Amino acid sequence: MGCRVCPTIAPWRKFPPTARGTPRFRIMILGEAPGRVSLDNHRPFSNPRNLTVRRAVARAIAPRQLEPEEILYFSDTVKCWPVSATGANRSPTARETATCVTRHLARELEIARPRVIFAFGARAASALLGGSIKLSNVHGSVCRNRDGIRVIPLMHPSTINIAGMRRVGIKSLDDYERQLAALFHQEIGSLLCALDQSNKRKEM
């Protein structure tokens, strides 16, 4: 929480651990870095475009009405908000990314022990898989990193990725929401069914 290693990323705004959700079910959503709107909302993946991801989770677990944080663990490749000179979001630099992955993300993965990570954006996918990733070649596919964790690289639903989304067959945000919901359901559906059965036994 108190990391101040990168002077280029001041004022070092980041999410507190309490905003990350739960590692209990070992399913992680990994983004590139926090954005201003999501930080102001105190919720990862909560700006208007990122809500596509949250709505997809809601569809995947319907009719259950759970907050995504109750079943998922949210994190970022770079923990602090990369702010530009104008106060807008920017992409983290290669140096900022390498520093944060080495100092924080690697340790976070050891603690959270995810069995699957949905990695949104090329930087998130590259941080997990190593090397340079061409996201259009691996979008939606199941990969494994050097520790054997299943990684599913995905296009980020941001405005600047519209062309990239179209290249992989995503026609609109609604279309992407449907695709993500189906993908999430594959990982979350059986888990929730098991939890439902466990809750029923407790009630008997």
Strand count, sense and barrel status of the largest sheet are:
5 strands, mixed
CATH topology: Uracil-DNA Glycosylase, subunit E
**CATH architecture heading:** 3-Layer(aba) Sandwich
Distance separating the two termini: 43 Å
Structural class: alpha/beta
- Our count of helices gives 7
Radius of gyration: 17 Å
Q: How much helicity do the residues have?
A: 40-55%
The CATH H-level superfamily is Uracil-DNA glycosylase-like domain
Give the overall shape.
Answer: globular
Outline the low-pLDDT stretches: none
What's the total count of β strands? Answer: 5
Overall description:
The protein is built from seven helices and five strands. It has a single domain, classed as Uracil-DNA Glycosylase, subunit E, CATH 3.40.470.10. It starts with 26 loop residues before the first strand and ends with a helix. It has 204 residues and is α/β, with parallel strands linked by helices. A five-stranded mixed sheet has the order 2-1-3-5-4, covered by helices on one side. The relative contact order is 0.17.
Provide key terms for this protein:
204 residues; 5 strands; 42% helix
In short:
By secondary structure, the chain is an alpha/beta fold. The protein has seven helices and five strands; from the N terminus they run βααβαβααββαα. A five-stranded mixed β-sheet has the order 2-1-3-5-4, covered by helices on one side.
Give me the secondary-structure topology.
Blueprint: E1 27-31, H1 36-41, H2 51-61, E2 73-76, H3 94-112, E3 116-120, H4 122-129, H5 135-138, E4 143-144, E5 150-154, H6 162-167, H7 173-203
Parallel strand pairs: 1-2, 1-3, 3-5
Antiparallel strand pairs: 4-5
